[in-house]
Structures are given as structure tokens and as C-alpha cells.
Amino acid sequence: MKVIVFNNGSLGFIELEQKSTGFLDTGTELVNPNFAAMAEATASRACAVEDPAEVREKLAEALAHPGPVLIDAVVNRMELAMPPKVTTEMAKGFTLTC
Predict the structure, then answer these.
(1) Going residue by residue through the chain (98 aa), what tens digit of pLDDT does each one get?
(2) d(CA 34, CA 74)
(3) pTM of the predicted model as reported, rounded to 2 decimal places
């Protein structure tokens, strides 16, 4: 099993929902642990990726490993994850928070 944690330091979808309804995001910021270090503490293989240039190399290593691997991928918190369908009300809410 290979697990990739997209670590953006926030409750991303909750934050997105708050913004889409016109509310300021509140209580969505997280101080995450180093998930790779936690996995290694349980004798699992793990790696942390903070530099986009390392992604291909780290994924190749993880997929080549015969056992379980956790990849802690630090991603941009402000990267917008779009819902499947954007309504007019959602667009209106976003304009109120930006």
C-alpha cells in the first residue's frame, strides 16, 4: 500500500466551503506533524516531499518499494480545489471573501 498525504496545513474543503458562502475562513488552519517521521516511528517506510522537483523521484522510489510507503507531500495551501460544479451563489460568495 502506498499512501500520499497532501499536506496543505488546512482543512482545505472546509475552508473552501466557508469562502464559497461568503464567510471568512475560521478554524481551518492546522499545524500538522511531520507525517513521514510518524510513519518511520512505526517502522514503516516514508519520505517527505517539499520541493516539486523531487516529486517524480520520490514517487518512483515509493512505487518501487515492495512494502507500504507514506509520502508526506507538502502542497500550496492557497491552491484552489474546485468543486465539481460551481454555482452562481458560490461565485458570489467567493467575491465577498477575496
Answers:
(1) 898 888 877 776 677 777 777 877 777 777 777 888 888 887 788 988 999 999 999 999 999 999 999 999 888 776 665 666 778 887 777 777 65
(2) 10
(3) 0.63
Buried b (16+ CB within 10 A) or exposed e, 19-47: bbeeeebeebeeeeeebbeebeeeeebbb
Please give the backbone phi and psi of residue 80, each rounded to the nearest 5 degrees, phi first. -80, 120
Grid cell at residue 71 = 509520502
3 near 68, Cβ under 8 Å? yes
Q: How far is CA 56 from CA 31, 36, 40, 59, 60, in A?
A: 26, 17, 21, 5, 6
